[in-house]
Amino acid sequence: MSRKCIVPRGQRGLKMEKTVQELKLLIRELILEIGDLKERVASLEKEVKAEPQYESRSEVELIKLQGEGYEQLGHIYKEGYHVCPVAYGQRRSDGCLFCIAFMEKE
What we know:
This protein is 67% helix and 0% strand. The chain is mainly alpha-helical.
C-alpha cells in the first residue's frame, strides 16, 4: 500500500513558489558568475597575446640535435656498450644486431 503525502493546495502552491524563487536566484547568480568568467578569459587572452612568442626550432636545428644524439650513440657503441633498447648500457662482447639495426633505422 503506497502512502502519499497529502498537502493542502495552498501549501503546495507556496512550496512551489518558494522553489521557483530559489531557482531564479540561483540562475541570476550563475549568470553573474559566467559574466565574471568571460571577463577573466578575455583578460587572460590579452595577456597571452601581449607576451613575446617563442620561436619554434627550425627543422635544420632539430635535425642537428638528432644528429648529435646519434653521434653519441655511435660513440657509446664503439666504446663497447649496447645502445639498443633490449640491453641499453650493458657491456657488449661482440657485435649486436639489435644495436646495429637500431642505429641504421634512425
